[in-house]
Design brief:
Structural class: alpha+beta
Largest sheet: 6 strands, mixed
GO molecular function: ATP binding; protein serine/threonine kinase activity
Keywords: ATP-binding, Cell membrane, Kinase, Membrane, Nucleotide-binding, Serine/threonine-protein kinase, Transferase
CATH superfamily of the largest domain: Transferase(Phosphotransferase) domain 1
Strand order of the largest sheet: 1-5-6-4-3-2
Organism: Ziziphus jujuba (Chinese jujube)
Number of helices: 15
Helix content: 25-40%
EC number: 2.7.11.1
Pfam families: PK_Tyr_Ser-Thr
CATH class of the largest domain: Mainly Alpha
Length: 483
C-alpha cells in the first residue's frame, strides 16, 4: 500500500508541475518517471484530490497519452485577433467564446483549422476546478461524439481552452432560435442517436464518467448535424467498487437534473439518462424544458408532456407543429415511449444509454410512413426589383414585378405567389405584408423539401462543406458556441 501511494505521488508530481514549461519532457524522462507503466490507466479528478492546493493549481503541459497542445496567451490572442468582437461566438457559465484560426505554421504537428477558444471569466461562477475537469476528461477521452479538445492555456490566473470549431453551433440554437426552416424529423433522430452514443461511451468506461450537465446547449453539431458532447466542467467520475452512487452538491441546469439528484445529492449514470429524456422530449416538441412565457400548466415540459407521451393516441397534440405532420408515426411512438422510460422517477426503471442507442438507431430506417409534402422551389427573380417596377408611373403590365413561381413536387402544378400592383405608392404599402406572408409560407414549406430529399439522400442532404458555410458569412452569421 505504501509503495502504491509513493508511486502515485511520483506520477502526480511528474505532470502537475508548472503551466509555464515551454516543451514536453523527452520520452526518456517520461519513461523514467513511470509514464509507460500507467499509459493505459485514465487519470481522474479523484487522483488529484489528495494532492496539495499548490500542486493542483499548476498543470503540466500535457497529460499522459494525450495529444494536447499547450498554447501561450500571446498565441491565442493572435489567432483570435486579440479576442475581437468580430470573432465573438457566445458566452456561457465558463466565460466568453471566440472563433480563431490556426495556420499550419504555428507549430509542427498541428494542422491548419478553425477553432473555438473559451476564456475563463475570472469573476464568474466557474473557475480553476471546472477548467481542470475539462482538461482531465477531454484530454484523455476521445470519441467521435465528444468534442475534440485541441489544447489549453494556463498563464498566471488566465485559463483558456481550445476546441475544434463546429460550424452549426449547438442544438439549443438550432431547435429554439428563429431560423428559416425547422429541423426535419430524421435529423432530430440522428442528433439524438449521436448524443446517446456519446453518453453511452462515457458510462461504459472502465471508470464510468457521469456527465451531470446534459442539455441542448451542450450538444454541438458539425456541418452534417453530427452531435458531439461539449462542456465537461461539471463531469465527475462514477461510483467504484461496491458504491452505488456519488454524493455531491447539486450542480447542473434547472429543468434537466434528475429528481433524485436534486432531492438527495446522490448522482449516478441514471441521472444522465433522465437528462437525456428531457432533451429527447425537447426534440419531439421543440419546447424548452422550462418556459415561463407559457401558461402555468405548460411551463414545465416534463410535467406537461408526460401524460401525452404515455398515450400514443395523444402524441400529435404535443409534436412540434412546424413539422406539419412530416414524421414517422411509428418512430414517434417509439421515441415517445423511450422518453417516458428515461423520465421515470425511479432510477432503476430507466434504460441504460446502451439500450437507448439500440432503441433509437432503427428509427432512422423508418421512412416509409413519413408523409411526403410538396417540394418547394422559388424561381429566382430577374430584371428590376419590386420597388422599381412602377417608379415612373408607366404600365405595370410591361414591367417585371418580381413575381415568383412555386412548383408543387406532387402534381407539377405551378402557382403564382405575388400580385401585380398598380402604382408605386400602393406597391410600397403592400410590400411589407406581401413579403412577410411569402417568407412565412416558404418557412412553413421548407420542411417538406427537407423531408422529401432526406428519404433519397439521407444525412448527405446536410453535407455542406464547412468552408462553404464560412465563406457565406465568415463572422456575424455563425452560430454561437455555448460554453
Amino acid at each position: 500500500m505504501k509503495k502504491h501511494m509513493a508511486f502515485k505521488k511520483l506520477i502526480l508530481k511528474s505532470f502537475l508541475l508548472s503551466c509555464y514549461k515551454p516543451k514536453s519532457p523527452p520520452n526518456s524522462e517520461r519513461k523514467s518517471l513511470g509514464f509507460k507503466d500507467i499509459s493505459s490507466r485514465r487519470l481522474s479528478l479523484s487522483d488529484l484530490s489528495n494532492s496539495s492546493v499548490s500542486i493542483m493549481s499548476d498543470l503540466s503541459n500535457s497529460l499522459v497519452g494525450s495529444n494536447l497542445h499547450t498554447f501561450t496567451l500571446k498565441e491565442l490572442k493572435k489567432l483570435t485577433q486579440n479576442f475581437s468582437k468580430s470573432n465573438f461566438l457566445g458566452e456561457g457559465g465558463f466565460g466568453q467564446v471566440y472563433k480563431g484560426f490556426i495556420d499550419d505554421k504555428l507549430r509542427p504537428g498541428l494542422k491548419a483549422q478553425p477553432v473555438a477558444v473559451k476564456v475563463l471569466d475570472l469573476d464568474g461562477k466557474q473557475g480553476h476546478m471546472e477548467w481542470l475537469a475539462e482538461v482531465i476528461f477531454l484530454g484523455q477521452l476521445k470519441h467521435s461524439h465528444l468534442v475534440n479538445l485541441i489544447g489549453y492555456c494556463c498563464e498566471d490566473e488566465q485559463r483558456l481552452l481550445v476546441y475544434e470549431y463546429l460550424v452549426r453551433g449547438n442544438l439549443d440554437d438550432q431547435l429554439f432560435k428563429n431560423y428559416s426552416a425547422t429541423l426535419p424529423w430524421l435529423t432530430r433522430i440522428k442528433i439524438a442517436v449521436g448524443a446517446a452514443k456519446g453518453l453511452a461511451f462515457l458510462h461504459e468506461e472502465e471508470k464510468p464518467v457521469i456527465y451531470r450537465d446534459f442539455k441542448a446547449s451542450n450538444i454541438l453539431l458539425d456541418s452534417d448535424f453530427k452531435a458531439k458532447l461539449s462542456d465537461f466542467g461539471l463531469a465527475i467520475d462514477g461510483p467504484e467498487g461496491d458504491k452505488t452512487h456519488v454524493s455531491t452538491c447539486v450542480m447542473g441546469t434547472e429543468g434537466y437534473a434528475a429528481p433524485e439528484y436534486i432531492m438527495t445529492g446522490h448522482v449516478t449514470t441514471m441521472s444522465d439518462v433522465y437528462s437525456f429524456g428531457v432533451v429527447l422530449l425537447e426534440l419531439l416538441t421543440a419546447r424548452r424544458c422550462l418556459d415561463k412565457s407559457r401558461p402555468n400548466r405548460e411551463q414545465n415540459l416534463v410535467e406537461w408532456a408526460k401524460p401525452f407521451i404515455k398515450d400514443p393516441h395523444k402524441l400529435d397534440r404535443i409534436m412540434d407543429p412546424r413539422l406539419e405532420g412530416q414524421y414517422s408515426a411509428e418512430g414517434t411512438r417509439k421515441a415517445a415511449a423511450l422518453a417516458y422510460q428515461c423520465l421515470s422517477h425511479n432510477p432503476k426503471s430507466r434504460p441504460t444509454m446502451t439500450t437507448v442507442v439500440k432503441t433509437l438507431e432503427p428509427l432512422l430506417d423508418l421512412v416509409d410512413d413519413i408523409p411526403i409534402g410538396p417540394f418547394v422551389y422559388v424561381v429566382p427573380m430577374e430584371g428590376k426589383d419590386i420597388c422599381e417596377s412602377g417608379k415612373d408611373g408607366g404600365n405595370d403590365n410591361d414591367k417585371d414585378d418580381g413575381v415568383g413561381m412555386v412548383k408543387n413536387g406532387n402534381g407539377g402544378e405551378e402557382k403564382e405567389v405575388g400580385k401585380k400592383e398598380k402604382g408605386i405608392s400602393r406597391q410600397r404599402r403592400k410590400l411589407g405584408h406581401r413579403q412577410k406572408h411569402r417568407n412565412k409560407s416558404l418557412r412553413s414549406n421548407a420542411v417538406y423539401s427537407d423531408t422529401a430529399l432526406y428519404r433519397t439522400l439521407g444525412s448527405g442532404l446536410y453535407s455542406i462543406g464547412q468552408k462553404d458555410l464560412e465563406q457565406k458569412n465568415p463572422h456575424s452569421g455563425e452560430k454561437k458556441l455555448k460554453s
